[in-house]
Amino acid sequence: MQQVAGDIAAGEPRATSLHRGQEHCPVCDGSRFTAVRPAFDDRYGHPGRFHIARCDRCGHRITEPRLAEADLPLLYGSYYPRRQLVAAELAAQAKGAGSRWRALGRWFWGTDNQGQYGARRGERMLDVGCGAGVSLLEAAELGAEAYGIEADPNVERIARELGLRIHQGSLQDEPFAGVAFDLIVLNQVIEHIPEPDQALIRLKSRLAPGGRMVLVFPNTRSLCCRLAGARWINWHIPYHLHHFDAVSFRRMAERCGYRVVRIRTITPNLWTVLQLRAMRGTPVPGEANPLWGGGEEAETGQQPLAGRRQPAKRLALAIVMTALSAVNRCIDAAGAGDSLLVEIRAGGRR
Hints:
The protein is of the alpha/beta class. Helices cover 33% and strands 22% of the residues. The chain has a seven-stranded mixed β-sheet with strand order 7-6-5-8-9-12-11, with helices on both faces. The chain has a five-stranded antiparallel β-sheet with strand order 1-2-3-4-10. It is globular, with a radius of gyration of 20 Å.
């Protein structure tokens, strides 16, 4: 591993064979990986040097060195920009989540890549990695009883101010003991978990009979990823520890005792705009990138663009965004969108 770290520091993108007995591939349980290129945090300025590695058995890609669960609170507390969030603004963002107009707007903007929108009245929902808690507020608007888990200690303040049930910690703490959930949501989270297969196995015991799980995560077989290559914004090193496509995730889910009920791709329009901007800039290792000042909203695609413009420019922006939305929805229909939304249920194949 020391040799690999040296190669990365020198900026040499040559492949290096790895064998680390304590790590395994969550897709096929392999233990040999090949480092294929160096990588660094091009968003928030984490100073570490990393690389993308490929499983020699199945081709699944991971981030090396892989962070441990215990590393996550310090990582997110120090570098993720949730310290600046205002509770009242989050509450306003969630208002009216169940209206038809809001649902149409989410489709237009590509922001329906969130599992909480499938919550039903009277259900209990658990959002693993719930961020600032907007998903819990939206699920409550839909009539569900919402719970959350979040590693970022900055969220404790927001949870207190909004009266949200958020456990600050990890899934390994076994929070909300004795509560079974009709819907478990992982929005842009499974790729952040060091051992995602173990997380799926643990979550199976928290599902109520007939319960379902909805996961949303970046799609490494998206058209945008293929075009952007190493500049794809959703590599998101070192926060994304695993890099899935539909095939690799299905294989992992089935190995963990689930069956895939549905799968589709969704591309937030904001992601496309940010990707185009990212192609113009040159990020510097160890320095925060001003492109990502939007924080969590930028990552999930929830931040609207129109409200940030002067009225004189809104008409032109509306025309551009309508055209962009039309293109993205066609790409999504072809299964080549930038994020995958997958619903799974406990049980084998049917």
